[in-house]
Amino acid sequence: MHRLDAISWTTVILVCATLGMAPFVPEPHVWEKLKMLVTGTLVKPIDIFDLLFHGLPWLLAALKGVRELSRKG
């Protein structure tokens, strides 16, 4: 968890805004993959990899947020 604390919020937000959302057109890639997951069409290995790759920054942000809240509470 020490490594998670060492990452600044600025870095996390920047990574979420770039890697987590790219490509932006026609819609954010991670959003497209999440919709595919919900509808059951996320079956190709490249799509699963894309979801993990573009979802990782959001997972990092969630873990860092939970860590921050648990340290304050």
Question: How would you explain this protein's 3D organization?
Answer:
There is one protein chain. The chain is elongated and about 40 Å long. It contains four helices and no strands. The model has no long low-confidence stretch (mean pLDDT 90). Helix content is 74%, strand content 0%. The protein has one domain. By secondary structure, the chain is mainly α. The chain crosses the membrane at residues 7-25, 45-63. Keywords: Membrane, Transmembrane, Transmembrane helix. This is RND transporter.
SSE order, one letter for each helix or strand: HHHH
Largest sheet: none
Estimate the mean pLDDT confidence.
90
Q: Structural class, from secondary structure content?
A: mainly alpha
Sequence stretches where pLDDT stays below 50 over 5 or more residues: none
Query: Which value, in Å, is the CA radius of gyration?
Result: 14 Å
Task: Tally the beta strands.
Answer: 0
Count the helices. How many?
4
Distance N terminus to C terminus?
17 Å
Amount of beta strand = under 5%
- Helical proportion? over 70%
Basic shape:
elongated
Give the number of domains.
1
Entry summary:
The protein has 73 residues and is mostly helical. Helix content is 74%, strand content 0%.
Key traits:
73 residues, mainly alpha, 4 helices
